[in-house]
Amino acid sequence: MVLFFGLIGMPETPRWLVRAGRDAEAREVLRQTHRDGDIDAELGSIREVIRLDTERQGRLRDLLTP
């Protein structure tokens, strides 16, 4: 129960927000959690990870090949 109520106030992850096209919200979450960091660099890093994940998506037949 405590965990459930604790999760109610948690924001979405910046990676999920960027992937959903909600960059302004992702920037705000990063601003809250990375007070001394470079938010633009972090957003760029997130976009790069999303791009690499998209390129590396496999197919079902990839699981069946040795």
TrEMBL record:
Compartments it resides in: Membrane
Keywords: Membrane, Transmembrane, Transmembrane helix
InterPro entries xrefs: MFS_sugar_transport-like (IPR005828), MFS_trans_sf (IPR036259)
Predominant location: membrane
Keyword 4Fe-4S carried by entry: no
Membrane keyword on record: yes
GO molecular function term, any single one: transmembrane transporter activity
Listed Pfam families: Sugar_tr
One GO CC term on file: membrane
UniProt protein name: Major facilitator superfamily (MFS) profile domain-containing protein
